[in-house]
Amino acid sequence: MGEGSDRGSKLAYFLVGGGIGAVVALLFAPRTGRETRDIISQRTADSRERVASATRVTSGKVSDYLDKGLEKGREAVSTQRDQISAAIAAGKQAYQEEKGTSGTES
Q1: For 80-92, how does the pLDDT look when each residue is reduced to its tens digit (9 = 90+)?
Q2: Residue 36: CB partners within 8 Å, gap ≥ 6?
Q3: H or E stretch including 7?
Q4: What stretches in the chain show pLDDT beneath 50?
Q5: Do 36 and 29 form a contact (C-beta atoms < 8 A)?
Q6: CA distance to 7, 16, 17, 18, per residue, from 4 (Å)
Q7: How far apart are CA 16 and CA 6, in angstroms?
């Protein structure tokens, strides 16, 4: 039972110390509450703008990257389509030639 009361007293001392620290901080604060709130508000607005700006820059870079990737993909598909078309045409031509030569030999 001594251990539980020891924990309780440590918590009480911690809370009392925190309260004393808060009172001392208020008494020795270099600025008024209004000034502090204004500074916090301004810094928050600045941070929001920096985040928004970074988001716009990153979004633009990602968009450019995706556009380049899509263009490369389209080029690859076009090249493959051309190669397949050429292979089909060559196959048809070879079939027609083989059909024509085998038909005359029979």
Answers
A1: 999 999 999 999 9
A2: 29
A3: helix 2-27
A4: 106
A5: yes
A6: 5, 18, 20, 21
A7: 15
- Amino acid identity for residue 66 in this structure: L
Matching residue, tokens 């918590």: 11
What is the Cα Rg of the chain in Å? 39
Beta carbons within 10 angstroms of residue 80's beta carbon: 10
Task: Identify the H or E element spanning 40.
Answer: helix 33-105
Dihedral angle at the C-alpha atoms of 41, 43, 49, 51, nearest 10 degrees? -120
Q: How far is CA 2 from CA 5, 9, 16, 67, in A?
A: 5, 11, 21, 70
